Amino acid sequence: MTQLGLGISRSISVVRTGKLGLPKSKSVILLLAGTVLLGGCATSRVATPEVVTDLPSAFSAVPTVAGPVDETWWENFRDDQLTAYVVEAVTESPAIGQAIGRVQQARAQATIQGANLLPSVNAGLSGSRSKQTIGAATNNFGLSVDVAWEVDLWGKLSSQSAAARADFLASASNLRAVRQAIAAETSRGYFGVIEAQQQVALSEKVVGTFGEITRQISNRADVGIAAPNDKTLAIANLESSRAGLAQRREAEARITRQFDILLRNYPDGQITVAGALPPMPAQVPAGLPSELLARRPDVQAAMLALQAAGYRTNAAEKSLLPSINLTGSAGTADSAISNILNPDFFIWSIAGQLLQPIFQGGRLRAQIDLNEGAEKEALEAYVETVLQALSEVETALSVESKLADRENSLLIAANAAEKSVGISFNRYRAGIDPFLTVLESQQRALDSRSAYFAARRARLENRVALHLALGGGFEESPTASLDID
User: Fold this and answer.
1) CATH number at residue 188
2) Which end of the chain is more exposed for a tag (fewer CB within 10 A), N or C?
3) Nearest alpha carbon to residue 300 among 390, 385, 185, 388
4) Could you give phi then psi for residue 352, rounded to 5 degrees?
5) Which alpha helices (H) appear in 38-93, and where do they start and end?
6) Is 296 helix (H, G, I), strand (E, B) or coil?
7) Which residues contact 140 (CB under 8 A, 6 or more apart)?
8) pLDDT tens digits, residue range 264-286?
């Protein structure tokens, strides 16, 4: 196997200076390709991108803490049940199994393409008996070894092998990306189940409170102390709260069963979670934008896909050149089977063939155009992946403080609204405020507390999104379990 640097002989500027809209304070060149072991002797036409752009020394959304990206970020939430679910999901999730299957297919395809560089050898043992119209029957026995080999004179076969190898490495990077995504989805799902249960508990408490108020109002209305309309309004409010409880229980049932599927479990909705959402962990070290692009597995996979497309274009161009095929055969043949191992009956032949394409109806040229189009598509997909990776980190960093402000305001609002419920009811009993004020304060208290739970979950999910955007986790070879070199 020959070690090949995935460089380029033609310069490709993936992102031109200033296109990211970042401060032009520091111009850097990110060589994301590195050196990859690929078989054969493929030429260096492959379009390994040089990302030339103005990148800042740090992310621009907010000041970030320097430090390595946490590889087991889910443990920062200090919830042993969450950690156990993440470990289970990244090994048992159907999405992981599918990704592993794709890696196995890519590895096999790389092996198949690599085998084309080597001669094919077949051994044969034959025997026949024949009789002409006149004459005695004759036997014929043979033992042979046949060899066929296409000489990779121009590097076409090695380019095809290198493309398949790049596809395999891309699938391995995608497997790591899937594992990161599953860890994030498990965390989000876990927080979703907790919030759903909190919403149900809140609705149950509200139904109980509304039921007691309705009972008191009904008693007052029955003896003429309260207006009959107050009783009607109280009953309507109680039934609305019961409908809200049913709706929240429905949401809980849906999200818990979806969580079961993520863990490859039967969807019975029996999920064990903490009683409340965890506190926010400390600020996350975001590192540098340049480090992000070198670390994100989806960026690596897009880069490798671009390299594979370049190798296929290279192979298509080499199809216009002559091909050389060598064949050889050796063995023994005789009418007596006892002589097939006798060297006196040894026979052999060697042949060579040179084929130059002359007329293919435009097929070969069209194949080049097809591969060049695929290469251009892969290039733009790579650019899009790079921009998306940067955007995800900047967005998660930018909205974190806003989500924290929202959560804090909703907490204050929920506490104040819940205090107002008792005050408004006492003022109603004293004849100061109408019953509608009581109903409004009850609904405001319910909405505020419910919104607070949702904001708490949104803030935690944004932290998960930041960890996912930074590409942390599963730095070890994602194909280790497949015993892949």
Assistant:
1) 1.20.1600.10
2) C
3) 385
4) -130, 150
5) 80-92
6) coil
7) 126, 127, 128, 129, 130, 333, 334, 335
8) 999 998 889 999 999 999 888 88
